[in-house]
Backbone:
């Protein structure tokens, strides 16, 4: 009698255990949480939205607590200059027609361009600009159709556009070089290989000379005036 009773009790215990184990499963088959506050910080978290993560809390009080936000559409990083021409044949043509190097030509700019060329371009385009870079010479890269030489018909805009987006087998360099650096490269290639040296911008120097001349003229007038009064 006693035994039968025990037997029943143990069966009951098994059933209860099964029920309790299965009923404690949370939605999505996740294990039950013991003291959820320990996992889900009541503090605002930078990258985690706990409410959303488990889908447990539908209340807006709990969800949407993440602090690190996706930027508003159209946001650009500080210092970044957008480039207005599209990566299409039409964009290439338009950039070629309309874009002018906004950077004044100088020897320093060409020097910077030379340095960049040595880091990013020389392994394909080569030291002489004829496509004799080490990658090409060792057969790792097919011959380069563009030879930088006098007479090469390429506008500044076309060159800039190509460095920005790439062309044919050449990849985009927009993520490695900012616009200023790309324009420096354009100056360098034109000056060094295409022998197209733009006239150095002399407007600033002329303005300084004009100012000095005006001052001298004024001073001479003053001297003349005092002399006239003196006599
Ligand atoms: C991986 C090899 C490779 C590298 C690196 C490379 N280029 Fe090129 N480049 C090419 C190829 C190939 C072409 C020919 C593209 C075409 O017309 O199909 C080309 C073409 C060009 C042209 C002609 C553009 C035009 O409008 O036809 C310019 C300018 C140029 N590259 C500049 C650069 C500069 C500046 C760098 C360094 C920042 C550079 N390239 C790095 C392979 C390369």
Residues:
């Amino acid at each position: 009698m006693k035994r039968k009773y025990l037997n029943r009790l143990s069966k009951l215990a098994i059933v209860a255990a099964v029920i309790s184990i299965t009923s404690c499963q949370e939605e999505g088959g996740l294990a039950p949480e013991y003291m959820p506050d320990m996992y889900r910080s009541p503090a605002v978290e930078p990258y985690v939205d706990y409410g959303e993560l488990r889908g447990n809390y539908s209340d807006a009080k709990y969800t949407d607590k993440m602090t690190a936000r996706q930027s508003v559409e159209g946001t650009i990083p500080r210092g970044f200059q957008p480039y207005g021409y599209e990566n299409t044949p039409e964009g290439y043509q338009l950039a070629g027609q309309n874009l002018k190097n906004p950077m004044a030509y100088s020897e320093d700019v060409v020097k910077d361009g030379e340095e960049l060329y040595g880091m990013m371009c020389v392994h394909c385009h080569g030291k002489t600009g004829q496509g004799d870079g080490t990658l090409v010479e060792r057969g790792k890269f097919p011959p380069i159709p563009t030879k930088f030489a006098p007479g090469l018909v390429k506008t500044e805009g076309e060159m800039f556009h190509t460095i920005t987006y790439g062309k044919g087998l050449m990849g985009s360099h927009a993520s490695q070089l900012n616009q200023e650096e790309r324009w420096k490269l354009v100056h360098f290639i034109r000056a060094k290989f295409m022998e197209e040296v733009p006239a150095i911008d002399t407007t600033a120097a002329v303005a300084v000379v004009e100012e000095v001349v005006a001052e001298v003229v004024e001073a001479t007038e003053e001297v003349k005036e005092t002399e006239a009064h003196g006599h």
